[in-house]
Write a structure and sequence with these properties.
Helix content is 27%, strand content 37%. By secondary structure, it is α+β, with helices and mostly antiparallel strands.
């Protein structure tokens, strides 16, 4: 397994990024300003994008693993890598997600704890209803992790 920082042609990973954030113009808000990483195990398995929020905090804006490779530890490996990568420069990492038990449990298993909520984020910022695990996403739940 290897993880590479992607510095150009980030849009070539759009199919994978759209698995985690299904509206392209929302991805466009952070893709170029963020650091992108790709995890390979023979072939591409997962990607993520991290942006600086301030001098102490960075945010995991997108992490996605191809569906056929989910549940095999690639997402956790990528989060461990970026946590180690950013701990020299930041004290906290944030991640925002929908209120689905599976997703929240995944982030909590990676060391994140619930932080705060942005009411109506998904209904206010997306041009169509977003569903995950059969649940319509309304509010964004933020979780944080000490690095």
């Amino acid at each position: 397994m290897r993880i590479e920082k992607i510095t150009n042609n980030k849009k070539q990973y759009l199919d994978l990024l759209l698995l985690a954030d299904e509206q392209e113009n929302m991805i466009d808000r952070y893709l170029e300003s963020g650091d992108m990483f790709a995890l390979y195990d023979d072939d591409l398995k997962a990607v993520c994008v991290v942006v600086a929020i301030d001098k102490e905090t960075c945010e995991l804006k997108n992490i996605a693993t191809y569906k056929k490779y989910q549940g095999r530890g690639y997402g956790k490996a990528l989060i461990k890598f970026i946590s180690d990568y950013y701990k020299a420069n930041y004290t906290t990492m944030l991640v925002g997600t929908g209120e689905t038990p599976t997703t929240l449990a995944f982030y909590e298993s990676c060391g994140f704890k619930k932080s705060h909520l942005i009411k109506n984020f998904f209904t206010d910022n997306y041009d169509h209803p977003i569903f995950e695990d059969g649940i319509q996403l309304i509010d964004m739940v933020y979780l944080k992790k000490k690095l």
